[in-house]
Structure formats: C-alpha cells, structure tokens
Design brief:
By secondary structure, the protein is of the alpha+beta class. The protein is built from 4 helices and 22 strands. The strands form 4 sheets. Strands 2, 11, 12, 13, 14, 15, 16, 17, 18, 19, 20 and 21 form a 12-stranded antiparallel β-sheet that branches. Strands 3-10-8-5 form a 4-stranded antiparallel β-sheet. It has a 4-stranded antiparallel β-sheet with strand order 7-6-4-9, with no helix packed on it.
C-alpha cells in the first residue's frame, strides 16, 4: 500500500509540473512597424457656409435656383415682391422734396440765425432735423428694396431652400443655405489632456459610419485657440479637410460636386485616427508583457526552465506593442506572456 501511494504521489507531482509548464506562453521579440495614434469622433461639416434670409419676409416672385443646384457668386437666388417697397420709396421721396422746399423758404425768411431769439432758433433746428429725417427715410427704403433681392455671396451648392415655387410667402425665420464643397471638413473634439499630443500637419485617417470600409486620408488643418465645454469636460475643436481629390469646383464640374455632397452629407458621424508618431522596422514586444516598477520597465524571460526578470529600455508605445531599445536579444530571449 505504501508503495502504491508513493507511485501515485510521484505521478501527480510530475503531471502537475508538466501542466504548469504547458500553461506558460513565450514569444520572441520581433521587428515590426509601430504607429501611435489618437482616436477621436466627429461629424462632417462645411467650413464655408452661409444662411441667407429676407429681413422682413414677403412673397417670392422670382426663384433663381432650386435646392441642390450649383450657384455662382452673386447669382440671384430669389426675389421678393418689392412693389409695395417701391411705392413707399416714391412717397418718401415726395415727402423729402416737400420738406426740402419748406426748408428753403425758411432760409429765405431768415436774415441772421445768430441774432434770432432762442425760440426761433429752436424752430429752425427742428425743421433741419425734420429734413434730415426725411433723407434717412428715403435711404432706409432704398436699402429695403436692395435687400428684396437675395444673391449668393460665393459659388457653391444650394443645400436648403424654404420654397420650391414662386408666389410663395416666406417669413423672417425661413432661410436659404449655401455651402462651398471645397470647404468640407471633418470636425472633431479633443480633450484638454490630449491637446499637447497634436500638431498642425499631422496625418489622419477618417472613417465615416456610413462607409466603414472606406478610409479617407487627411491632415490636422486647424486646432481651436478657444476651448469649449462638453459632457466630457474641456475640449478643443479640430478640423480635418474631407475633400482631397476635388479642387476648383465650378459650374462645369457641378455634377462631380453634387455626387461628392450626396455621398458625404453634412452631419454624418465618424471617427478620425490621428497619427501621432510612427517608426518602421523596430524591435518590439507586446505591451502586456511589460512590468512597470519604480519608473523602470521589466519583462519576464525563460532561462533554462526558469523565469527571471530583466530590465529593458523602451521607446515608442502603442496600444498593443512597445519598442525595445535595449535589453532583449531577438535570437535568444523568450519573453513570457501573462498567464490568463
């Protein structure tokens, strides 16, 4: 019985030791390309856009473009009925002329303004102000007439129109909106603690939720100087040009512009991966294999069936791998991976 117990105990000890050794996983340091990135979320927007409104509303009597049309700079988009405004201008002009002649008669009857009594000087001053007010009324009416015609401040695509036909009433809240397709950007927010990592000109890769299999190359084009507040705290706006292969869009290429706008629509959500640093063909190991202690980095390596710790010097660190500058030999060292 004692002999059987001894044999069974020896078998159990060696089987457990072998199973423990089988659980240890090791890898050799490898040379690979490392890329450190910063992932942000954002939306498609246009840097150059304009919302146009009629100051007082009115009836549309001319419509020069429909929603989705290409418009040239200073092209008339819409005109409201100005007949009432024109008649008001004519009446104000008549009132001005009447006031002007009254003023001239008053001047003819006045010999010396400085020698007049105070009440007479006040009366003359009031008449002068009445004349000036009549001039202002004419100018205001002329401005109102000039604003009855809406023109495009720059060339682009009309993406919003409150009406599709003439003889339709618009109110002050109705607006026409134009964007320049060349100014399409991907706008994202970066947290305050990460702002020191980014610089203008850094490469970036944009992926939109609507086109997950398509990557758009871009760069950091703008970093806001003024912070703003969001649900995550203090953030800064960043912009990445979305348009890369279209330039100098005009009337002749408006079909291409429309296709681009139809694909990359304002408000589309997506992600942008900013490339902070990259190195090619550097010795590296998985980040999970490192141990940090007292501002130093260690790894566990196998030596003659024993696990020992070695201090290493590290460089570029990504989410998955870390560069090994010194301390490991890719030909002889076997790095121990963490046990599950």
């Amino acid at each position: 019985i004692a002999l059987l117990l001894l044999v069974a105990g020896s078998w159990w000890f060696f089987s457990q030791r072998q199973a423990s050794q089988e659980e240890i996983q090791t890898i050799s340091p490898e040379y690979r390309d490392l890329v450190k990135t910063l992932d942000l979320t954002g939306v498609v927007d246009a840097k150059k856009r304009a919302r146009l409104r009629f100051l007082a509303g009115g009836k549309i009597v001319y419509l020069g473009a429909q929603e989705g049309d290409w418009v040239e700079q200073w092209q008339t988009i819409a005109t409201i009925d100005a007949r009432d405004l024109q008649k008001r201008l004519e009446r104000n002009l008549n009132q001005y002329m009447q006031q002007r002649w009254d003023w001239e008669d008053l001047l003819d009857e006045t010999d010396d303004y400085n020698n007049l009594e105070l009440s007479q000087r006040r009366f003359i001053d009031k008449e002068q102000w009445n004349l000036e007010n009549s001039v202002i009324d004419v100018e205001l009416q002329d401005i109102a007439i000039s604003q009855s015609v809406m023109t495009a401040p720059f060339a682009g695509i009309l993406i919003n129109s409150p009406v599709s036909t003439t003889n339709t009433q618009v109110i002050i809240n109705d607006f026409f909106e134009i964007i320049d397709p060349n100014s399409l950007i991907f706008r994202a927010e970066i947290n305050e603690e990460d702002i020191s990592l980014v610089n203008l000109g850094q490469k970036a890769i944009i992926t939109l939720d609507a086109y997950r299999d398509e990557e758009l190359s871009s760069t950091v084009n703008f970093i806001a100087y003024q912070s703003s507040q969001s649900s995550s705290g203090t953030v800064f706006q960043m912009e990445f040009p979305l348009i890369g292969n279209l330039s100098d869009l005009n009337q002749e290429s408006n079909l291409e512009a429309k296709e681009f706008i139809n694909k990359y629509r304002l408000g589309m959500n997506g992600d942008v991966r900013v490339i902070l640093e990259e190195k090619e063909n550097v010795l590296s190991i998985p980040l999970i294999a490192t141990i940090s202690r007292d501002d130093k980095t260690f790894v566990e390596v196998m030596e003659e069936d024993k696990i020992i710790q070695k201090e290493i010097q590290v460089g570029l660190e990504t989410d998955e791998y870390v560069e090994v500058i010194d301390g490991l030999n890719p030909d002889t060292d076997r790095v121990v991976l963490p046990r599950n």
